[in-house]
Specification:
By secondary structure, this protein is α+β, with helices and mostly antiparallel strands. It is built from 5 helices and 9 strands, in the order H-E-E-H-H-E-E-E-E-H-E-E-H-E. The protein has helices at residues 11-21, 59-68, 71-76, 140-155, 173-181; strands at residues 29-38, 41-51, 82-95, 100-109, 120-124, 127-136, 158-160, 166-171, 187-197.
Amino acid sequence: MPFDRLSLICYSIAVVYFNFKRGLNFMSNLVNLSFIDFGPARVIGKKTIARVEGAENPIPQFWMKCLEDGTLQVLESMPSYILNPAYIGWEGEYDPNTQEFSYIVGMLMKPDTPIPEGFDFRDLPSCKMAIGWIKGKEPEIYMDGVYLILSSMRDLGFEYDESAGYMIEVYTYERFVMPQERGEDEVILDLYIPCKNIEVS
């Protein structure tokens, strides 16, 4: 699951990263980009607080904790409510003053899913969603992915919908877990980024 990396939560951070990476070579590739009508959905899982930079990133250890303490098994025991069987990392609620954001390890569930005791949730309204497949090695896929998707989105007339304020890392078995089980160096990370048509002034 996720290695230590620069986490990009809101559009302002993504733009900074976009400018920083301009002209540099990437170790990862965007191998597929699609747009779907997404939602509504409910993210359910366990939450931690992380910072964009500075302090040690707690996310990798938090993933290990959730994998070992039965968090994800609780959600998998509710199959009739599951929208997507993949594990996810939801990132949002960025505070520019502290550079802190919320990170939820969990799953995408139906909007009426009951919340298990001790779990966190976020309700996601319907939106246009860009889904990019980022192929490469860890940790580069995390650092390259947002830039590659945002750049390609703009070429197609879309931009990040800053009113959403989140993005989702989706770890599918077929594209992320199975390559690791086969001993391959490269995996494919799915990134979900809310988007909208570019407004022409």
